[in-house]
Amino acid sequence: MKKKFIYTLLFIAAITITGCGDKQVKENVSTSTSTDAILTEADKEKTEENNQIETSNEAKDRNVTRDNNEKENSNNETDSEKISYDSYSGSWVIESNLRADYHFGLGVRLTIDKEGNLDGNIGNTSTGITHVATFPIKGKIENDKFSYTFEQDGWGNKGTINMEFNKKQIVLTIKYDESNERKNFWGIGEGTFTLVNRETKVERSLEDLKKGGLAVIQDQCFNINLDSYGEVKFISGTKRADGYTALRFYLAGKNDKIIYYFPEFSTKNFLKEMKAVSFQDINNDGLKEIIVIAEYNSSGPKKEHCSIYFPKSGEFINDKNIDDKINSYQDVNTINSVIQCYKTNFK
Q1: CB count, 10 Å around CB of 121?
Q2: Quick check: 343 pLDDT over 60?
Q3: Which of 2, 59, 181, 204 lies at a CB distance of 3.0 to 4.6 Å from 258, suitable for a disulfide?
């Protein structure tokens, strides 16, 4: 009996211990799972934080790369836009004078090498070159700027000039010394002027040319269909040149826009009047030549002078040899006689 009681106690104790053991295991498992969850969330946050840091660093790297590229491109653009000083060699004039085809007034002639060493002169001439003011300049361009002090412009004036070299322009400032005689109306002149190269292509109208001194000869202007140019207006006029009155011829399109300048008439004698213009195909090439006859004041027996303009590749060219040959005949002084002389000697 006593032995049974002991076995019963041992059995109950074993069950109790086993039950407590299961409960402890379950608690341990639960605790472990909870800890793993906490660690996992922390790891996720840290991973996300690291990813954000990496993303931020990558963005910074991209920004730095972009900034460097932009800086490099900016430097390249600056280098490409850097002024080549030797490109400023040539003749420079006020743009309004260029548009008016006015060959007098303020002008600058320059010879410059790539390093900016400059040699040239600045001048101002009245119409017909009755008065001329000029002085030489020499030095070096620094940071796209040039300064020079002149002692004499031909009319007792002295002062300073400053030139700023911009893209396709030169800004010229001329200032007299305070000691100059203000009573002198002649001289280089003061002020700030924007200059362009004389070879710059500009649009001109008939009104522009009139402002430049062109006197239109109304009864020698004609509407004509000239082959590659189509319907145009042939304009005749006179203009004061270097000591003489010159004949000038132009073609004008719509709104009197000048579309072509003819080469200068082949004589510089003293013009009396323009006598005739004719548009005819005299060499059977299917294109109209332009024959011009003018009368000049001359001490010799020959008063009339003619020139023939031949169309060639969109231009009109006068051949001095042909003109001189025709003008050597005293009795060639009409349109018909000019045509006959040409066919006799050059066909």
Answers
A1: 14
A2: yes
A3: 204
User: Fold for domain 85-197?
Assistant: Lipocalin (2.40.128)
Burial (CB count <10 Å: 0-12, 13-18, 19+), residue 332: buried
**Other beta carbons within 10 Å of 314:** 9
Tell me the pLDDT tens digit for each residue of 250-284. 999 999 999 999 998 866 667 889 999 999 999 99
**Domains 85-197 and 213-346 are alike in CATH topology:** yes
Instruction: Write the CB contacts of 276 (distance below 8 Å, at least 6 apart in sequence).
Output: 291, 292, 293, 334, 335
Q: What's the CATH fold of domain 213-346?
A: Lipocalin (2.40.128)
In the chain, the largest separation of any two C-alpha atoms, in whole Å, equals 178
- In this structure, are residues 310 and 318 in contact, taking their beta carbons and an 8 Å threshold? yes
Looking up tokens 């653009």 gives 77
| DSSP codes, 264-330 | PPS--SEEEEEEEEEEE-SSSSSS-EEEEEEEEE-SSS--EEEEEEEEETTEEEE-HHHHHHHHT-T
Q: Distance between CA 6 and CA 297 in Å, rounded?
A: 164
- Whether residue 98 has pLDDT greater than 50: yes
Determine the Cα–Cα distance for residues 127 and 333; give it in Å rounded to an integer.
Answer: 32
Contact, 275 vs 236, CB < 8 A?
no
Tell me the whole-structure pTM to 2 decimals. Answer: 0.68
Supply the DSSP string of 87-119, one letter for each residue: GG-EEEEEHHHHHTT---EEEEEEEE-TT-EEE
Enumerate the domain spans of the chain.
1-64, 85-197, 213-346
Q: CA-CA distance, 333 to 276, in Å (whole number)?
A: 10
Residues 166, 61: contact at Cβ < 8 Å?
no
